[in-house]
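A further point concerns the way the authors explain their paired sequence and structure data. An entry of this sort, consisting of the sequence and the corresponding C-alpha cells, reads as follows:
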Amino acid sequence: MTALVLAMGTFALMGAITPGPVNVLAIRHGAAAGRLTALAYVLGASLSYALVVWLMGQGGAWLLHEAWAVQGARWLGAAYLLHLAWRVATAPPMALAGPAGAPRHAAWAALAALRDGGLTQSLNPKAWLVALSGIGLFVLPQADARAALGLFCAVSLLACGLGVGCWALAGRLLARALAQPARQRWFNRAMGALLALSVASMLG
C-alpha cells in the first residue's frame, strides 16, 4: 500500500507541478491580492482536479475516444483561457496588490480566485489526460478498483495542492518586487503572454 501511495503521489505531483495554464495563473494569483486569494485559487484548482480524476474513474474516459468531445473540449478550454490571458494582460496595476495594497473586498476576490482555479483546471485538457493515465496505471489494475479510485482522488487532491501551491508561492515572493505600477503592468503582460502561449501549445 505504501509503495502504491508513493507511486500515485509522485505521478500526480509531476503532473501538477509542470508548467501549464493552471500554474501560470497560480503565479499571477499569488502575486495579485494576498494569501487568501492565492489559497482560494489553489483550492479551486485542486478540488477541480480531484473531481476530474473521479469522473475519469467513473467511466468518463469514453469521452476521450469521441473526436467531437475532444475537439469541443479543446476549443472551449482554449477560448476560456485566452479570455483569462486578455484579462491578465490588461489588468490595472492595482490588481496586483503587494504587501501594502490588500484588496478592499478580499472575500469576493477569494471567491473569484476559487472559481478561476476550478474552471481553469476543469477546462485544461492536460488535466483530463493525466487523470486518465493515472486511472490506467493505479486504479484499474487493483483488485478493489473503487477503493483505489478513492485513494487516487485523495492523493491527487494533495499533490495538486502542493504543485500549484508552489507556483502560487513563487508569485507571492515576486509580489515584493512589483510595488511599482510600471513593473506590475509588465508582469501582467508577461503572464498574459505566457498563458496565451500555453494555450497555443495545447492546440498545436
